[in-house]
């Protein structure tokens, strides 16, 4: 059994034979369910360089010894920010295996920067752990190539999709993404952390209809896959 725990905003902890933390923005996150010092991880996946996604990855990696996996340029940036005190693994769009976990870094339509300088490209991740396939979209708009993710690596058991609008897909676009991905279940994320991305997840659920099971998680809640 694999557990997918929502930590708030776009942060998730996937727990099975390994603990995989994604976009651990906890400090300064008004929706965070835990503090950085309360999280354990074997791998930390970072989708892009924005502060609400890099988050506390360095602090957590220093404490736990977790490896940080990100786009090559983003990984180098994180290594520099940590003065080389954390282990980073830079990759690019494509598949790899790290410590027994199959990971595919896939495109995302979004910017990636430290707020001033562009740093690499944004991405999402497909993770295969203990026989389950989980897709974290990162920050993105919908695009038709999402259909390839299911074709190449599906069936996707759970898709974690942003619905906040303004910076990412809104409910309408995310519902179209569900149609393309053909995921069994979908969890909305990246909404209502701040006023510009305020959304009603029930509207997203209505738009998805019978295409997939929409599971609305509150920060701290988890889904068993």
How do the strands and helices of this protein lay out in sequence?
Layout (H helix, E strand, L loop, with lengths): L2 E6 L2 E5 L3 E4 L20 E3 L5 H4 L2 H8 L2 E5 H10 L6 E4 L2 E5 L2 E7 L15 E7 L2 E5 L9 H8 L4 E5 L8 H11 L3 E5 L11 H8 L4 E2 L7 E3 L1
Parallel strand pairs: 3-4, 4-5, 5-6, 10-11, 11-12, 12-13
Antiparallel strand pairs: 1-2, 1-14, 2-3, 7-8, 8-9, 9-10
Helix pairs in contact: 4-5, 5-6
Keywords: Hydrolase
Protein name: UPF0173 metal-dependent hydrolase A3L09_10075
Organism: Thermococcus profundus
Task: Characterise the protein shown here.
By secondary structure, this protein is α/β, with parallel strands linked by helices. It has one domain: Ribonuclease Z/Hydroxyacylglutathione hydrolase-like (Metallo-beta-lactamase, Chain A, 4-Layer Sandwich). The chain is 22% helix and 29% strand. The protein has six helices and 14 strands. The strands form two sheets. The protein has a seven-stranded mixed sheet with strand order 6-5-4-3-2-1-14, with helices on one face. A hairpin with a 3-residue loop joins strand 2 and strand 3. The N and C termini lie close together (6 Å).
Name a few traits of the molecule.
Metallo-beta-lactamase, Chain A; seven-stranded mixed beta sheet; alpha/beta; 29% strand
Provide the residue-averaged pLDDT: 98
Straight-line N-to-C gap: 6 Å
Helical region count? 6
Number of strands: 14
Order of helices and strands: EEEEHHEHEEEEEHEHEHEE
- In CATH terms, what is the architecture? 4-Layer Sandwich
CATH fold name: Metallo-beta-lactamase, Chain A
Give the low-pLDDT segments. none
Helix content: 10-25%
Protein name: UPF0173 metal-dependent hydrolase A3L09_10075
Family: Belongs to the UPF0173 family.
Pfam families: Lactamase_B_3
Keywords: Hydrolase
């Amino acid at each position: 059994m694999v557990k997918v725990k929502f930590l708030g905003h776009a942060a998730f902890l996937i727990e099975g034979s390994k603990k995989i933390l994604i976009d651990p923005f906890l400090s300064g996150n008004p929706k965070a369910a835990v503090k950085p010092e309360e999280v354990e991880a074997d791998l930390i996946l970072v989708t892009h360089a924005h502060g609400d996604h890099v988050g506390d990855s360095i602090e957590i990696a220093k404490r736990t010894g977790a490896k940080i996996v990100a786009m090559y340029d983003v990984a180098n940036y994180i290594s520099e920010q940590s003065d080389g005190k954390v282990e980073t693994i830079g990759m690019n769009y494509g598949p790899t295996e790290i410590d027994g976990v199959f990971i595919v870094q896939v495109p995302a339509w979004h910017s990636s920067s430290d707020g001033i300088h562009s740093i690499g490209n944004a991405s999402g991740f497909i993770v295969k752990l203990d026989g389950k396939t989980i897709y974290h979209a990162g920050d993105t708009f919908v695009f038709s190539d999402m259909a390839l993710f299911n074709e190449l690596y599906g069936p996707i058991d759970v898709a974690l999709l942003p619905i906040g609008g303004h910076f990412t897909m809104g409910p309408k676009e995310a519902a179209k993404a569900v149609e393309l991905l053909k995921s069994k279940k979908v969890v909305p994320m990246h909404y209502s952390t701040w006023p510009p991305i305020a959304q009603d997840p029930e509207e997203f659920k209505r738009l998805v209809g019978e295409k997939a099971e929409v599971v609305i998680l509150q920060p701290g809640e988890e889904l068993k896959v």
